[in-house]
Amino acid sequence: MSESSRPVAAAATRPPDPYAADDLQLLDPRKVGMACFLCSEAAFFTTLLVAYGLYVGQDTIGPTPAEALSLPLVSINTLLLLSSSGTIAWALKARQDARRKSCCIYLGITILLGALFLVGTSIEWRGLIYDQGLTLGRNLFGSTFFTLVGFHAIHVGIGLILLMIVMILEARELLAPDSVAPELVGWYWHFVDGVWLVVFGVVYVLGR
Amino acid sequence: MASGTHNGTELHAPGPFPWQGWLTTVDHKRIGVMYLIASCVFMALGGLEALLMRLQLWQPNLNLVSAGTFNQLFTMHGTTMIFFVVMPIQAGMANYLVPLMIGARDVAFPRLNAFGFWMFLFGGALLYFSYIGAMGLYGSGSAPDIGWYAYAPLTSPAFSRGNSTDYWLLSTLLAGVGSVSFGVNLIATIVTMRAPGMRLRAMPLFVWMMLVTSGLILFAFPPFTAAEIMILFDRHLGSHFFDTQAGAHGLLWQHLFWFFGHPEVYILALPAFGMISEIIPVFSRKVIFGYSSMVAATVGIGFISMSVWAHHMFTVGMTSTLDLFFSGATFLVAVPTGIKMFNWIATLYGGKLQLTVPMLFALGFLTLFLVGGLTGVMLAVVPMDWQLSDSYFLIGHFHFVAFGGILFAIMAAYYYWYPKMTGRILGRRLGLWHFWLQFIGFNLTFVPMHFSGILGMPRRVYTYQADAGLEIWNQISTVGAIITGIGLLCFVCNLIVSFRYGRIAGDDPWNAWTLEWATTSPPPSYNFEQIPSVNSRRPLWDLKHPTDPDWLHE
After folding, report:
1. Which residue of A has its CA nearest to B282?
2. What is the count of residue pairs from A and B with beta carbons less than 8 Å apart?
3. Between chains, do B183 and A36 touch, taking CB under 8 Å as contact?
4. Could you report the predicted ipTM of this complex, rounded to two decimals?
5. pLDDT by residue (tens digit) across A48-103?
6. What is the sign of the dihedral through the CA atoms of B276, B278, B279 and B281?
7. Where are the domains of chain B?
8. Which residues of chain A are within 8 Å of residue B218 when distances are taken between CB atoms?
9. Which domain holds residue A122?
10. What is the CATH number of the domain that holds A140?
């Protein structure tokens, strides 16, 4: 278009309607931010998983995953974490219906299940370290396994802290009814849960 | 916004120090300016390192610096320029401009924004603290000397004693965390906080390219962080991620690093493309040619850039299938990049060109980036790469992209948006000196590298053989580097002098069309008294020409 103005157009009184609104702009920036953050987390865990998958079976010394890992304990652990995804969904549902007490109870159960998962992990690690002699410095399996599962456990721990904060705030009625914090913590928790499912699949099912 | 202030630009935070307002700020414009100022300091350091290397290479077998010092110099130069110069400049420009361009009052998460800046700054400080603090227990090494991509097993405890490598790892890790927080913040801002009426297809191209850049940051930086954590574990906890004796592959590091490192090139380049896409139309007095294809090409580059990383690794002996795939994917990048090139040229075509200093730098970008792109296509040919990889040809190529391309675009951006940031225009006379010195100096420095590279001069070696025909090319390069340095000094002088004595800019010195020119220069802390509403890609054109608005034609 040239710099010089054109003659007045008859229709130039009102901008076109399509420019009035945009669905994306109605999104909550905090939700978009959390979604982006979880994407970057996914890229982080994928890298650790790739390293694990690449090095499975490359070890020069034992123990191997088949020798060291036991399924029963980790299956219980997986069940604990999976059900915690359900309880947090109930907690958020209760919050939506303004049932503060049951929301807090479900959050408490979620925290309990997450904490039990960490207890299970520490029992597993104790066995690996003392009975199997598997440490970070033992072999490639030890290096990749403890890094991958360890970072996941750290994320579970951070999730527990966040859940506790939300629960305390909610119990003391300090959280605004329209606060998105519980929902975002819920997203994070589901994400950590999802990562565990992939870790379980790669490490305990495919990799053994 | 602080209530009761008469003027939004001068907010005085309560506190004992005059700088407290800056130290504690969460304002996107102040954070942007701090990014830019910090990057200038790092650019001076990185430039000084480059100059020292060029002086060392003036003659064969010169001993101006030792071989070990030379290793530190190229490591620090590369790391500084990538992580602590170009990254923060792009982050600073985006911080300053994106909220203004989309008609927002700030970014989505102002405190996260400040966090990102301080992570970058502390990362940079940590890198340079290694000169003093990295001696470690062994008394060996000071600055890191592992090259900017730190190949395993150079970084293993056996080959890299002392703590210099740890400083490199931690500083880039911190800067990476800052970058991810920046990316998260920017996506949330762009997606949800645009002014009413500004649909995605009406966003300024700079904002589009920052959106894609932020997406790349989200997926490229975390793998790098993970890989760095692996090295740190290897170095301090005895793990074996890159220990070949335990059955590991050193190649894993190369893959992980370049999976970050190649998108990183586009993380640096896409904002530059965005700046050029804003500047060329304004000084051609035309709308950008092919807006939609420009956006499509940007998204295309974003996707393709995630799948070309191993073209940095043709010489390590991958299978021919992998070579073929990555070579083909690399050729593919030339398509969207070519679309952009033609769009810019078509925008120039038939326009009323105004050869202002920013426009000169934009034209310099077009020519130099074209050369860098073409040598890039040459290097994508696997046999060619086998011959030229790790030679000075490669150094010439990527400086044509990173310096001739990206830094020229950044200079154009400085001259174009400085009036908005300070209220004064950068002086034209010093600007012309700066442009011509940098343009001539740049070509003198980097064109000869293509020749010395083809003649067989390897990169990263502190000297070269006499009587191999390399002296003349190296001496031209060194002269060019000094001229470039003088040009950059002119730039710094211009920044300082014009801040005090430059011509008053007014709100809209270039008669431009995007929203940042609708507010005062510099903008008040709340940016816009009234959030503007947008009906087209050039909202200011619509304001200035109510009888012939853009939305009639889009």
Report:
1. A3
2. 159
3. yes
4. 0.93
5. 999 999 999 999 898 999 999 989 999 999 999 999 999 999 999 999 999 999 99
6. positive
7. 25-180
8. 36, 39-40, 43
9. 64-206
10. 1.20.120.80
